[in-house]
Design a protein that fits this description.
Length: about 450
């Protein structure tokens, strides 16, 4: 026996956003706490999406009946000029892009890049970090991560000028139109703050990527970078349409790779600051395993607690905090009828904090991810890299890159974050700490 939509609770969400306009994530947390895993609707004026947080319901949407829940609709429309119709779309375009891109992100391929990645991180830390003075955490993490990812994706032939334009442009593109994600029912014809900056950023991204595609196409380069491999795979798909497909796949892979990595690594430092006991264990492990030697891939298997720490950061602060989907056909989820055309919103941020699946869900505890402690956990209670057919291709890359970078910094420095209290997440395309958060890094004195 199914429950009709008339019996589904509607939570007043627009009023919550108004109440928490300074920290809108608080409105989301209130709605999640009130729903407590139940499938509910969010009252946003004429727009009433379904909020899906229970792991069983998440599994249904992302895996069991995944083809029915597509990445289309109001929440995706603001990003469409940026991400296009490649790996972040659905249907034939997505299947083709995934077939081409998946071989580039296997564990074997990522492992082949590991030593080069470690050397790049070590070199960037030397060049970028100035001990003592306050450092903008997000900008510092981006300055270390971005060149490495750009070289991996675009190859050594991309100019320094283009490389320096691409990172800031993408950062603006994923943050400038944040208000449209909170108010997805506002038509495009109604101007909102950030629209112009978003369009300028898109033009910059297009200029850089299309220039690099042209370089590879005209010179028939056979490099190991992603754009070269995409051009090889689409050798018979020349012309504007083929170039557009390559461009869309490049943006869809490069953007999240840099944004996700930078965002999570930015959260690491306030987490260390707020949890000194966990921080002490991280410092001890890095000192014991790495010492004052350059971090290498050989150290990774022994950085067990650091990986647990990163996993807990991903639980409490998943970059992909919201996963909207559109139902193509009427379906039943958890006994609730979802009408065709409806929007459903999955939120790893809420699912990963559900009390019925997580003991002390708001407590920062890396021991949740100690070997053996994950046994019995619902597979869809933890999904920082999403799940199902659309699982993030870059998760192996991230889980190698993050410990290398964190250990690379901590083998030389101890951080002091400049914050007087809890750091609240800010809602944009990804879940970020507030802009301008700073820390100082002080060299370790060894006898």
């Amino acid at each position: 026996m199914t429950t009709t939509t008339a019996s589904v609770r509607t939570l007043p969400f627009l009023s919550r956003l108004t109440k928490h306009w300074r920290v809108p994530v608080n409105a989301l947390e209130e709605a999640g706490a009130q729903a407590d895993g139940e499938l509910v609707r969010l009252g946003m004026g004429p727009f009433r999406p379904y909020l899906v947080t229970h792991p069983d319901h998440v599994q249904h949407v992302l895996t069991t009946n995944q083809p029915n829940f597509v990445r289309e609709g109001m929440f995706w429309d603001p990003l469409a000029p940026l991400v296009g119709h490649g790996i972040l779309s659905d249907g034939d375009n997505w299947a083709e892009s995934r077939r081409i891109l998946q071989p580039l992100f296997t564990a074997r391929y990522v492992n082949s890049l590991a030593e080069r990645m470690a050397e790049s991180i070590d070199r960037s830390i030397d060049e970028i970090i100035v001990p003592g003075p306050p450092l903008d955490i997000a900008k510092t993490m981006s300055a270390i991560v971005h060149p490495m990812i750009v070289r991996l994706f675009f190859g050594e032939k991309i100019s320094v000028a283009d490389m320096n334009r691409l990172g800031p442009a993408y950062d603006v593109a994923v943050t400038a139109n944040a208000i449209r994600h909170l108010l997805p029912f506002v038509p495009d014809r109604v101007p909102l703050p950030g629209d112009r900056a978003f369009r300028r950023a898109i033009r910059t991204v297009d200029e850089v990527i299309y220039r690099r595609i042209e370089q590879v196409r005209t010179r028939e380069q056979d490099g190991d970078d992603v754009v070269s491999r995409l051009c090889q795979a689409r050798r018979d798909d020349a012309g504007p349409d083929g170039d557009r497909r390559i461009r869309d796949d490049m943006v869809a892979m490069h953007g999240p790779s840099t944004d996700t990595t930078t965002t999570v690594l930015t959260w690491v430092w306030p987490a260390l600051h707020a949890h000194p006991e966990a921080a002490a264990r991280v410092y001890e492990e890095v000192e014991r395993v790495v010492g004052d030697a350059p971090v290498s891939v050989s150290h990774l298997p022994d950085l067990t607690y650091l990986r647990m720490f990163v996993s807990e950061v991903l639980r409490l602060y998943p970059p992909a905090w919201m996963l909207p989907r559109k139902a193509l056909a009427t379906d039943v989820v958890g006994g609730v009828t979802i009408e065709a055309g409806s929007t459903v919103i999955l939120s790893p941020y809420l699912t990963q904090r559900l009390p019925r699946f997580w003991d002390r869900p708001l407590t920062f505890d890396p021991e949740r991810f100690a070997p053996g402690n994950e046994t019995g956990r619902h597979r869809y209670a933890y999904l920082p890299f999403i799940a199902g057919p659309h699982v993030c291709l870059g998760q192996a890359l991230f889980m190698m890159e993050a410990p290398l970078l964190i250990a690379g910094i901590l083998r030389r420095f101890r951080p002091v974050v400049h914050s007087d209290g809890p750091v609240s997440p800010q809602l944009a395309s990804s879940l970020r700490p507030p802009a301008g958060l700073t820390m100082a890094l002080y060299p370790i004195r060894r006898s």
